[in-house]
Specification:
By secondary structure, the chain is α/β, with parallel strands linked by helices. Helix content is 39%, strand content 13%. Helix 2 packs antiparallel against helix 3 (49-63), helix 10 packs across helix 12 and helix 10 crosses helix 13 (373-396). The longest helix has 24 residues, at 373-396.
Length: 492
């Protein structure tokens, strides 16, 4: 029998409104699961049990006042630790921000807090969101609840593992090169990256500002639609926020896929390095879409092969600029030195990890005089070609589909010595970040190794509704209900 913390947010909201359960009971269920598992998973950097209990009591009082209460009220939430929270430590997984307590909330959390959401903690992540395995966190790696010897994916691995293990009902993460969809795939949950600007980035600790997207982790596509509805919409505090107001993304969710034109990115399924189990599960999901009434044909993204190279010039260039603010002068960690120059060098040397230093150096080089046009300028031209590929593909198709990740969860330490092998983990997710288009990953089965496989659905700019509708229809047909073996012996 499922514990409260294992149910969907939609089901819990229904039970809360008919008084079958209380927000306090749901919160205590999640907190007990956290106490039982987090020592092994290392999901949270800053648990907030006292705040969660306080917010749960407030949600119960609010629910008792009448039926017109926002959907997130009383539902346990986890936040990736790159999303700032007023009065709660926000480290971005880095030693350089270990003591940082922000004086303001990021907009997504401000909106959820106003809606009565219950925060159970800030989740572990790759340092400054730079990584594909969550092994770059300055505070140690997260372990995948499906197999404790494997990674949960990154950089939002803590948020994905929290939802997969029932320590939170849903969570927020960020997706710059795949950091929501890839860990969602590896942990067997739903990960949604909306259109760039759909969710405000105000209060997000920046990695690469033209690529950073706030995204969601949920147990179901309906939950993803509910959570997106609660946090989307224009924000005057974010100049890149889309001008559209918030809307209800659950409307039309049951519309099915009949008549939709679906393009399969076959080149990804033929790529060297894709696991046969991943390929088979994805092909099985494509067959299901066809049986459900979608028309399916091959789609081409001719410049997608160059997206990875372009990304690893654009993202480091932007990160070298964004991370220049961490100098030991204004806030965060400070090392002692004889003068400002030595203090600055020692602060950044001790405060940043190897991967962050690698990307800062790469980005600084790409932006330097004499190399700007050869590297950063060329990468931006490739980005434009990738954007045009998507535009042309969407003239023929309503949706594009393919695998989320070329492999299931790999073993801890397997790729840490080979940055390029690690970077290739995001080869299927990076193009949607470069183009800013919405994309979702849903679990489509288990590979022969017993680990979940993610199926990626990509849509037109600002067309989250069609992405969610197709994902919901496929999810219902697949009926994926497998749980991490770790949960079989876990109490709530």
């Amino acid at each position: 029998m499922a514990e409260l913390c294992d149910l969907s947010a939609d089901e819990l909201a229904r039970r809360l409104r008919v008084k079958e359960v209380s927000a306090v009971e749901i919160a205590e269920s999640a907190l007990r699961r956290m106490e039982a598992l987090d020592e092994r998973l290392h999901t949270f950097l800053t648990p907030t049990p006292d705040l969660a209990r306080e917010q749960a009591r407030a949600a119960d009082a609010r629910l008792g006042e009448g039926p017109e209460v926002p959907a997130p009220a009383g539902i346990p939430l986890a936040l990736k630790d790159v999303l700032t929270t007023r009065g709660i430590r926000s480290t971005a997984g880095s030693k350089i921000l270990e003591p940082y307590v922000p004086p303001y909330d990021c907009t997504p959390w401000a909106r959820l807090k106003a809606a009565g959401s219950v925060l159970v903690g800030k989740t572990n992540c790759d340092e400054f969101a730079m990584g594909s395995s969550n092994e770059n966190s300055a505070f140690g790696p997260v372990r995948n609840p499906w197999n404790l010897e494997t990674v949960p994916g990154g950089s939002s691995g803590g948020s994905a593992a929290a939802v997969a293990s029932g320590q939170a009902v849903w969570a927020l993460g960020t997706d710059t090169g795949g950091s929501v969809r890839q860990p969602a795939a590896l942990c067997g949950v739903v990960g949604l990256k909306p259109t760039y600007g759909r969710i405000s980035r105000y209060g997000l600790i920046a990695f690469a500002s033209s690529l950073d997207h706030v995204g969601t982790f949920t147990r179901s596509v309906r939950d993803a639609a509910i959570l997106l509805s609660a946090i989307a919409g224009n924000d005057p505090l974010d100049a890149t926020s889309l001008p559209e107001p918030a809307r209800d993304y659950t409307e039309g969710l049951e519309g099915g896929v009949r008549g939709l034109r679906v393009g399969v990115v076959e080149d990804w399924l033929r790529m060297e390095g894709i696991q046969p189990g991943v390929r088979d599960a994805v092909r099985g999901a494509i067959d299901r879409l066809q049986r459900l009434g979608a028309s399916v044909d091959e789609a081409k993204l001719p410049h997608a092969d160059y997206a990875l190279s372009a990304y690893y010039l654009i993202a480091p260039a932007e990160c070298s600029s964004n991370l220049a603010r961490y100098d030991g002068v204004r806030y965060g960690f400070r090392a002692e030195g004889r003068d400002v120059v030595e203090m600055n060098m020692k602060t950044r040397g001790a405060g940043f990890g190897d991967e962050v230093k690698r990307r800062i150096m790469l980005g600084t080089y790409a932006l330097s005089a004499g190399y700007y046009e050869a590297y950063y300028g060329q990468a931006q031209k490739v980005r434009t070609l990738v954007i045009r590929d998507y535009e042309q593909a969407f003239e023929r198709f309503d949706l594009l589909v393919g695998p989320t990740s070329p492999t299931t969860a790999f073993r801890l330490g397997e790729k840490t010595g080979d940055p390029l092998a690690m970077y290739l983990s995001d080869v299927f997710t990076i193009p949607s970040d470069l183009s800013g288009t919405p994309a979702i990953s849903i679990p489509c089965g288990l590979a022969p190794d017993g680990l979940p496989v993610g199926f990626q659905i990509m849509g037109k700019l600002m067309d989250e509704a069609t992405v969610l509708r197709a994902a919901h229809a496929l999810e219902q047909d697949l009926g994926f209900s497998s749980r991490p073996p770790l949960l079989e012996g876990a109490s709530a």
